[in-house]
Design goal:
Layout (H helix, E strand, L loop, with lengths): L22 H19 L10 H15 L2
Length: 68
């Protein structure tokens, strides 16, 4: 008696060329990045927080990158 073999997972159907992302799929990462950058730039300045120089260097490097 022969045993049945497993054929594996069927291939996924091809993605239609007209498939588009919803608007929030592109806007959400931009919004989160902007919010985090704003928090880094204008944080409350907790007394126990260290590394203000590193944040300044990061923001300065971003500014240098974005200016022509």
């Amino acid at each position: 008696m022969s045993a049945r073999t497993h054929q594996g997972v069927p291939p996924a159907p091809p993605i239609a060329p007209g498939t588009r992302l919803p608007w929030w799929a592109a806007a959400l990462p931009v919004l989160v990045f902007t919010a985090l950058l704003a928090l880094m730039a204008t944080g409350p300045g907790a007394p126990a927080a260290r590394g203000d120089a590193e944040v300044g260097r990061v923001l300065q490097r971003i500014q240098q990158t974005l200016t022509p």
